[in-house]
User: Which sequence fits this backbone?
């Protein structure tokens, strides 16, 4: 797919033409085409209407329980707890992992800002690590070498030798739906007594060695934001195989109110993080369609792969070995020689109503995380300059996919 | 209403009988009767279905803006910002009031735990104050005397003389919908350079001196939880007349993402607190009915007043002078001689399907706030033993109000 040697002398327009042509062959003619829009083709209205008809719209209701059961069944993780969004899920994961003020939490610099913010909410400091050029998630081999340098076990706690702070947890993020190297990362966490958390916000429907993601972390977070593979408007969930942690998650997300027919006794500082039943109803209908959505998104990924097979300027990032990705977002990785054209491509596509976007600004470049401890970030920095996320809705490329969604 | 002198010797059953009889005369025969359940009689279906039909269910959408405009129009407060729940609204109010770690924030001990938790989220300490026997909210005269004792101005900052910590803000809560003494409390805050925040979670539709609550605080919070006068499933809003604060609230609740067609640049640690469009759609339909809901709840309050006029064991708490309450929850205050029967009353009512409840456990009795600085709490302690909240839905006492709602 990538040709070696020197490039022919082309204008930017000429260079971008094959990319645009490949994109257009997948996307059809309807414009604008969203980066990712919801797809409601199941029982969404039935369930939502049922909430309105019965008056059960708030944080206690049958659809919340039903959504949690459906998540458990689909992912195979023993306990699921529905919360108000993916950020809240990550916050709860951090709290239950024991992250406290003064701790450091390892997480990839290539992620959405919520991963780092959840650590900040606990008063802890993100400790930023680089990613693998293959998985786009935390690089297990480089992290192992880095920990060798900076980490030191004292009793059952791992410390950053330089700062003297505990390295309490590692949050791995399954970037664009592609699972990170979970076996190797879990092994590394066991060795260093670091709690593993999976940020699976983008990865509902993604499998690693035939098991759904969320099985490796002590706790994991998923998201049902409007741009995710299934949506509840806003929503998310905490997943865990640990019954006691699941119980604590429930308590912590419901203002730590002790069960009682009328008394309002709360036994710790806690949160109002439970998902309303109205949103859960939408989620139940969406989850019923998840296997179909995953198939359709994998088929779209194949169409992208096929369309870009002959394009010299870049390639579509493929699912890593031993994984089965939900291909939440398809990503074009520009050939190194074409990196300087990334913004021209973004601008041209946007102008044509193809709502592509780059990867996130790297965490170590954001003002509030600029001074966080970190390793060398050369891979993430390279990737960030070369990645372009492509329209990846369930119905992208179907007839009549035009939409007003941005 | 209250008779003086010694009480006749009655059994608990005999003593409670007139209360139950008065309650039953208001509630009609359908059971169970909820403490507060939503009432959907407007365009809820239309608006929610419109979200599903257009695919706009998430945190960007026309209903969010429309809900905010409707709130501004109804309350007269210049800026409203819809968020994921009332707790999030309070948190944002505290953050924008400049509450930081090490600060103390004055708030009533008689409140729902979210008021205190919002302060904790900022790393600050609740400083608990007593309430007025008339408004059930912060007692302005006693607070003035207390501040005289403990507060000291240094430059433009008020300090707790004992702890040495800044007294950054006062959160007043409009208990059960009855406005606190806003003029006197605002004056006190000006004198001591303390930021005034209104916790109006329960008070949408309540007026103080002909202006809607939320006009006195620099920032105010309202709630659209399932048990509130209008509901979005879960939701809330920040109100402020300060355009710059409104702008900062918007930024802080949307992950502090800088406006850009594609780049993900965030410039501070921030939150994912925006209300989804799906919930906002429900809220728009509900707000259209708010004037009617307030009328019906005020009419219910009159029916309670009338029914309890001849009951010696207690009286219905009336709206304070100079206010027009939404009567979110009607509250029976037991005569001091009957306080020991509160739990028997709660149990008897619950057993009969009348889902009454007491006031909240006082903040200074909860384990996490037990050691917070505080004043003498004799009024709140007395009230807490004597208050019983009564069923107060919009349709309570109408024909066929029975419901499965708890």
Assistant:
């Amino acid at each position: 797919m990538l040709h070696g040697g020197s490039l022919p002398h082309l204008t930017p327009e000429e260079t971008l033409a094959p990319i645009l042509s490949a994109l257009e062959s997948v996307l059809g003619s309807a414009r604008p085409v969203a980066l990712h829009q919801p797809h409601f083709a199941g029982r969404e209205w039935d369930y939502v209407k049922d909430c309105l008809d019965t008056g059960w719209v708030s944080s206690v209701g049958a659809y919340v329980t039903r959504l949690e059961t459906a998540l458990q069944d689909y992912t195979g993780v023993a306990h699921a707890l529905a919360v108000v969004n993916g950020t809240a899920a990550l916050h709860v994961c951090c709290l239950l992992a024991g992250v406290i003020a003064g701790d450091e939490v390892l997480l990839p610099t290539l992620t959405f800002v919520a991963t780092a913010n959840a650590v900040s909410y606990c008063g802890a400091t993100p400790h930023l690590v680089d990613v693998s050029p293959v998985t786009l998630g935390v690089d297990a081999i480089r992290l192992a070498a880095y920990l060798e340098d900076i980490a030191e076990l004292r009793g059952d706690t791992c410390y950053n030798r330089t700062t003297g702070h505990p390295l309490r947890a590692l949050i791995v993020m399954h970037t664009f739906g592609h699972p990170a190297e979970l076996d190797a990362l879990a092994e590394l966490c066991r060795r260093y007594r670091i709690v593993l958390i999976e940020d699976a916000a983008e990865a509902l429907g993604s499998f690693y060695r035939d098991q759904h993601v969320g099985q490796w972390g002590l706790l994991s977070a998923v998201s049902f934001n409007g741009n995710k593979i299934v949506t509840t408007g806003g929503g998310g969930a905490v997943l865990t195989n640990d019954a006691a942690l699941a119980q604590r998650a429930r308590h912590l997300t419901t203002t730590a109110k002790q069960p009682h027919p009328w008394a309002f006794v709360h036994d710790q500082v806690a949160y109002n993080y439970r998902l309303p039943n109205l949103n859960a109803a939408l989620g139940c209908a969406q989850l019923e369609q998840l296997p179909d959505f995953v198939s359709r998104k994998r088929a779209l990924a194949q169409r992208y792969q096929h369309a870009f097979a002959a394009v010299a300027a870049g390639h579509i990032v493929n699912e890593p070995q031993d994984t089965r990705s939900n291909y939440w977002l398809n990503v074009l990785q520009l050939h190194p020689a074409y990196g300087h054209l990334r913004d021209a491509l973004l601008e041209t596509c946007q102008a044509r109503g193809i709502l592509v976007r780059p990867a996130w600004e790297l965490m170590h470049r954001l003002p509030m995380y600029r001074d966080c401890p970190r390793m060398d970030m050369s891979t993430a920095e390279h990737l960030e300059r070369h990645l372009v996320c492509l329209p990846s809705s369930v119905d992208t490329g179907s007839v009549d996919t035009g939409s007003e969604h941005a």
